[in-house]
Design brief:
Number of strands: 15
Low-confidence stretches: 333-338
CATH topology of the largest domain: Nucleotidyltransferase, domain 5
Order of helices and strands: HEHHHEEEHEEEHHEHEHEHEEEHEE
Shape: globular
Structural class: alpha+beta
CATH architecture of the largest domain: 2-Layer Sandwich
């Protein structure tokens, strides 16, 4: 699964080269519901082809990239809850989503990234590092789903991490007066300890640089108790949560691992939401918080919003002028009313390195669908 990160979305949204095709489709994990997914996809691809033929007749290569997935049986048998595919002459991005998205196809001068922003902003997301002495796996999940994450510049095995530097490949050193069998056994124990420590250090650095920092997600460690202690003793990852899942990660299937993880993540999730709401209330008392969408729009574009809470599933039809911060409300039934002002506000805050969190309706401190805490 490809991770959705703020930096990746901003790179997609920045300086697009049209035509930009954004395809979103709800998908299914299991039979028989997933049988309809490739059929719906082929219908969307036909719409892409017709639209490009009319507006961008030179962009046939984009259609070909979408068509490559039409008959890919392995691809369609490995779906999650949602699919996003973004294509332009310069790039082609595929995202497996752990939450359903409405079916949508947009061909425009820029990419439509708001559904991905919704995924990115959700506060219940976390990652799990499944660690043994010889291999590592990374997972990303929420309260409902858990999936493997494709490792980026992270060695998956001890052999891959250390290669020719594996201590076990070095010749047995002679020790006068020590029987050869005992000498070999003792050296083997030392080799395992040395290689394990070097492997764990390599993994810790790579996960921090290529996954924890880009995602900003809490990281749970799933490992045997002895490996928990060894890894934590050397880890420098500030996203690693204090309590881990003390079990061989290969002993659990995905659903069992998700259940064990959510038991630990849910209290942290609720505590984090409560602290964010408290911080907003305190800021508002000092005239550094706002719920009015017009005020938030101007502050977001000016880079004043440090944290923005937006209500989950709430849609406020309208648009935000990315230059002035002025908001334009859409009238009921107006063409294009599917644009969501809350998503525009979120994108503006992310663009200025602010934090955006999606909050369940029952825990929102305002009735407007947004709550902003200002930096100044």
């Amino acid at each position: 699964m490809r991770e959705v990160t703020a930096d990746l979305l901003m790179s997609i949204a920045a300086n697009p080269q049209p035509p930009c095709v954004s395809l979103y489709q709800p998908t299914h994990r299991s039979h028989p519901d997933n049988r309809q997914d490739p059929i719906r996809y082929r219908n969307l691809v036909r719409r892409i082809e017709a639209t490009l033929k009319e507006l961008y007749p030179q962009a046939q290569s984009i259609v070909d990239r979408y068509r490559a997935f039409e008959e890919d049986e392995a691809f369609w048998n490995g779906r999650t809850e949602g699919l996003a595919m973004l294509a332009s002459p310069e790039r082609f991005e595929v995202f497996e989503l752990q939450r359903p998205v409405p079916e949508r196809l947009i061909v425009a001068d820029s990419f439509h990234v708001k559904p991905l922003l919704r995924i990115l902003q959700s506060a219940d997301r976390y990652q799990i590092l499944g660690l043994t002495r010889t291999e590592v796996k990374l997972y990303e999940g929420n309260r409902d789903a858990l999936d493997r994450v494709d490792l980026t510049d992270v060695p998956a095995t001890l052999e891959e991490a250390l290669g020719e530097e594996l201590t076990a490949r070095q010749p047995v050193r002679a020790a006068p007066g020590v029987p050869a069998v005992a000498r070999a056994a003792g050296q083997r124990t030392d080799e395992i300890k040395i290689d394990t420590e070097r492997f764990f250090r390599t993994i810790d650095r790579a996960i921090l640089e290529h996954h924890s920092r880009p995602s900003g997600l809490p990281l749970l460690l799933a490992a045997l108790p002895e490996h928990q202690g060894e890894f934590r003793a050397l880890s420098r990852n500030p996203y690693l949560v204090p309590r881990g899942i003390e079990i061989d990660p290969n002993a659990l299937d995905l659903e069992a691992l998700r259940q064990r993880a959510w038991e630990q993540v849910e209290p942290m999730y609720l505590e984090r939401l409560a602290s964010l709401v408290d911080a907003y209330e305190a800021a508002r008392a000092r005239q550094l918080g706002a719920e009015d969408l017009a005020d938030i729009g101007r502050a977001a574009v000016a880079g004043r919003v440090g944290t923005l809470l937006v209500e989950a599933e709430r849609v406020v039809p309208g648009r935000l002028d990315p230059t002035s911060g002025a908001i334009e409300r859409s009238r009921d039934g107006e063409e294009g009313a599917a644009d969501d002002l809350l998503d525009d506000l979120a994108e503006a805050v992310l663009r200025t390195k602010g934090e955006v969190i999606v909050v369940p309706a029952e825990r929102m401190p305002t009735r407007t669908g947004a709550a902003a805490t200002y930096r100044y």
